[in-house]
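Protocol step 4 of 6.
Sequence for Crossover junction endonuclease MUS81 (Panicum hallii) entered exactly as in the expression construct, tag removed. Do not edit the line below.
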Amino acid sequence: MEETKRTKGCVPNKKTAASGSPGKEAPANLNCQIAQSLPRCQGTFELQSAGKTGSAEFNMLDKNYLLTDHSILAMPPHQSNEEFLEAYEVVLILDDRENFGSRSRKVASRKVADNICSQFNVSVQVKRLPVGDGIWIARHRKLLTEYVLDFIVERKNVADLGSSIRDNRYKDQKSRLQNCGLRKLIYLVEGDPNTSNGSVASIKTACFTTELFEGFDVLRTSGYTDTQRTYGYLTQSIIDYYSTNFCSVAKSARICPTYDEFEGNCRSLQKKTVSQTFALQLMQVPQVTEKVALAVVEFYPTILSLARAYSMLEGDICSQEEMLKNKSKVINAGASRNIFKLVWGDGCNLQT
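Step 5 output, structure tokens:
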């Protein structure tokens, strides 16, 4: 069930998109994080000092190049002489399963939506999302067609992040985000890793690799309230980006998918192949990383094909244990031995 939360007369415009509601000035460190998550189109974003402009906001350098650069984000359809905010309303959509500290997740999500709407004068909707925890749509004011803008957020508090690292859920979730069709992937980490019951090192390493090697922009918040503000500031910055670039790059940019197209694409991602399922199962084995699992399924796409290979070496346990190690340099001796014990042995005494 969908529910849209907005204040009376809550229609974003260029002015409020840039500077937000009075008194709602983004902290400098948060502005820097958000600026890094936005594309460098027609120049770079600069953070103007509050003393110079009256508020902390993003401005584009006056450079008319990169109009066909790959960094340009998808745009909703554009009619000639049509301003972005005249044609579209930007709506932040939050997943209704999000946990914001209340026993009822739906009630908590609606309360957060109300708070963001009233504080930042933006439209917020709560509904079930097929992937991610937050997206933005551009809803045509006349036709009511909804186009999914090129931003998506996956939100993790440090406790959940630590848990998902241990059971490898976070790799699967990131893979779905990377294949959902949206370009700007934002990983929002909530809380202090140093206060987590899990491994502080593994959480910090996960954040580092997610940003540096996997194409995500990692934003960090201190808690629920800070996350709420970050959603508000992100919404204002996204409105500002599309308002600034809509007329100049819409003709050369990709067209945003409709919400129905986005949802259909995400549903297809959920239909895992047998090999993908086998790889996820392998990743539960000690010493088997994602790279190791992918290397195994490259040679043996199903557990049956792997079992058949072991059967060809029946009676030579040493060769069976080393079979995968000898197939690929990516697979170490411990992982090779553990997979053999799980598939062909008794599954006991797996070495961590």
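Step 6, annotate. Strands lie at 3-5, 45-47, 58-60, 88-95, 123-127, 134-140, 146-157, 184-190, 216-221.
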